[in-house]
Amino acid sequence: MEQPVAGVLDRRQAGEVTGPRGPYVVPHPASLGRAAGARPPLFRPETGCRGGRGDATVAGMTMVRLLDVEDWALYRAVRLTALADSPEAFSSTLAREKAFVPDVWQERLAARNTFMAETEDGPGGIVTVLATEDGTAELVGMWVAPAARGRGVGDLLIRAALGWTAERGLAELRLWVVDGNRRAERLYARHGFARTGATQPGRPGADEVQMAFVPARE
């Protein structure tokens, strides 16, 4: 459930991700290719997403960085806030994760690739991308803070996940979204994601649909 982007990039059109694991560039969507028949990602002025700097700028300065094990306390705080704010978007619960000891949060960050968007007002959102055994990747745990919604933060997080996937040559990036969550589907669709036709049970009364981004092949 948890919803909750290769080549030489023009940094005027990319956001730079920083963190303990080193710099990471959020690619401009034009460098990624897209699934056949999908519309190209759209970044309209009204989203607040604009280039022109070496970092990602979204209605003010927003940096996206890859979290490391040392960030576990920050990750815990943001994750618990997400579970409290949007419980319907996650398969886990606030009560369950509040009981986790520090080792659990550290192990999560060591085993997963979690990106955080940091705005002038504090954490703006998080997303995690995982490599799967079948040679694809899965996007999970997507959440944007209420104060950061509608400002392009979700776009930057998805581009970070797509970039991680592309750099590793994985076949596609998949995700699950609650059926009927049109706002989330529109966000994913403008980055080239499309429904695969697969579904799965979610929370009671809320099925989930699978979406996937398939990189263009040379």
UniProtKB/TrEMBL annotation:
InterPro entries reported in the protein's UniProt record: Acyl_CoA_acyltransferase, GNAT_dom, YpeA/RimI_acetyltransf
Positions the record marks as coiled coil are none
Q: Where is this region: Disordered?
A: 1-28
Which molecular-function annotations from GO does this UniProt entry contain?
acyltransferase activity, transferring groups other than amino-acyl groups
Q: Which domain of life is it from?
A: Bacteria
Q: Which PROSITE patterns match?
A: GNAT (PS51186)
Cite the entry's keywords alphabetically.
Acyltransferase, Transferase
Q: Which residues form the N-acetyltransferase domain?
A: 62-216
Gene3D superfamilies assigned to the protein according to its UniProt record, in alphabetical order? 3.40.630.30
Any one Pfam family here would be Acetyltransf_1
- This chain belongs to the protein called GNAT family N-acetyltransferase
